[in-house]
Amino acid sequence: MKARMPAGFGRPDVNALMRQAQKMQEDMKAKQAELEAAEYTGSASGEMVTVKMNGKHEVLSITIKPEAVDPDDIEMLEDLVAAAINATVKQVDETAEAEMGKLTGGMNIPGL
């Protein structure tokens, strides 16, 4: 006598997989919009230079404390601005990676 398995047993439900993938895609789009709208702040040298940026990597503002400005050492100020921007970009990227990783369950999806 041959044992019968319930209908669909052993075969994935393609429709359920498609619904699940569509929901994940919608969740990811919503999270992406949320991350792009968020504001991030980074600084350099004890907040001598502070940069505010959104999730699209657009610089919203740069604040420079007066004591950071030395007319005889413009290179230092340039370095502080670059360092503050880089710190903020890193914060944006790490936050996006962590939040999207929560949605994808750690799967490495190209383009994210």
TrEMBL record:
Coiled coil (residue ranges): 14-41
Superkingdom of the organism of origin: Bacteria
Pfam family, one: YbaB_DNA_bd
SUPFAM superfamilies per record: YbaB-like
GO cellular component terms, semicolon-separated: bacterial nucleoid; cytosol
GO molecular function: DNA binding
Keywords carried by this UniProt record: Coiled coil, Cytoplasm, DNA-binding
Subcellular localization(s) per the UniProt record: Cytoplasm, Nucleoid
InterPro entries: YbaB-like_sf (IPR036894), YbaB/EbfC (IPR004401)
Keyword DNA-binding in record: yes
Chief location bin: cytoplasm
Keyword DNA-binding: yes
Record's subunit section: Homodimer.
Its job: Binds to DNA and alters its conformation. May be involved in regulation of gene expression, nucleoid organization and DNA protection.
Family, as annotated: Belongs to the YbaB/EbfC family.
Name of the featured protein: Nucleoid-associated protein C4N22_01905
